[in-house]
Amino acid sequence: MTPPHSFQLRVYYEDTDLAGIVYYANYLKFIERGRSEFIRELGIDQLALRAAGMFFAVRRVEADYLQAAKFDDVLEVRTSVREVSGVRIEMDQSIRRQDVTIFQARVTLVCLDLQGKAGRIPADIRSRLNVNAP
Known about the structure:
Layout (H helix, E strand, L loop, with lengths): L4 E6 L13 H18 L4 H6 L2 E12 L8 E11 L3 E10 L2 E14 L9 H7 L5
Antiparallel strand pairs: 1-3, 2-5, 3-4, 4-5
């Protein structure tokens, strides 16, 4: 597993429901931002990948909501690669407020072509994602 990548964000009013608590679907948006920043920092250009005829899509998410985030909280999204295969990437993600994990998820991504068919992840991208591989 890779060391966790860290991305910080602040909870805005638009992220909350009438009670001032983050709406449950927004946690998925927060971890999407964390994944995007992680991929970008690895030097993987998702626009170039799409121009080459492929893209990543979420296949599966297992999520646990542990505590509520609220308006104006500063959150940290942590992302690490658990496993990479020829067509699949499995990531662990968590959202923390200070030192407390308030949300955690396991996310499976697949590589698809522009027709929506599974395709192999290019070797150079697999090697960037396998930062601990020999």
